[in-house]
Amino acid sequence: MSLEPHVDKDIWCVRPDETAAVAAARMEKAAVGCLVVRDEFGGVAGIITDRDLALRVVGRGLDGAQTLVQDVMSGPVVSVNAGCSLTEALETMRDQGVRRLPVLRDGLLAGLISYDDLFVGLAKEMGDLGEATRREFWRAGEHADLSGLAKRAR
Questions:
Q1: What distance in Å separates the CA atoms of residue 114 and residue 139, rounded to the nearest whole number?
Q2: pLDDT tens digit string along 100-143?
Q3: In the structure, how many helices (H) and strands (E) does the chain have?
C-alpha cells in the first residue's frame, strides 16, 4: 500500500537557531508532538519532539528561553521517499528506532508520517483485505463448494 495517502502535509517547522521555548509554544499552538527542523536552505536538519524538550531541556534543568533547538533536537534526520510503501516506512522506523519520518519528494520536504499514521493505514489495509475475503466467501457459498475456496486461499 502506498505511503502517500497517509502523509501529513500540514508540516510545522522550526529553525535550528530558535529556542526550545519557541519550539514548545509552536507545538502547543499546533497541537503536535514534533516539529521538523529546517536549515537556512530549507532542507531538513532534524526533528524536535516533545520528548526531546522534556528530557533534554526540562530534565537537564536548562532554560528553554536560552537553549537552542539545534542543541536538543534529534538528528541526523531519518527520512523516507514519498514513493515508498507503508511497509517500507514501518521497517525504516523499526530499524532506525524512530516514530516519525519526514517524507521527501525529489529531495524536498513533502510531509511527515508517524508510527500512529502507519498503524492506522495498515489496520485499514487489513480491514479491506478482511472485507474482500468475506465477500469472496459469501459469493463462493452461493455459487460453489467452499472447499475449493479454501484450497485457493492456501
A1: 38
A2: 999 999 888 999 998 887 777 677 777 777 777 777 777 766 65
A3: 6, 6
DSSP 19: B
Q: Give the residue carrying C-alpha cell 511527515.
A: 112
Q: Which of 92, 95, 94, 116 is nearest to 104 (CA)?
A: 92
pTM of the shown model? 0.75
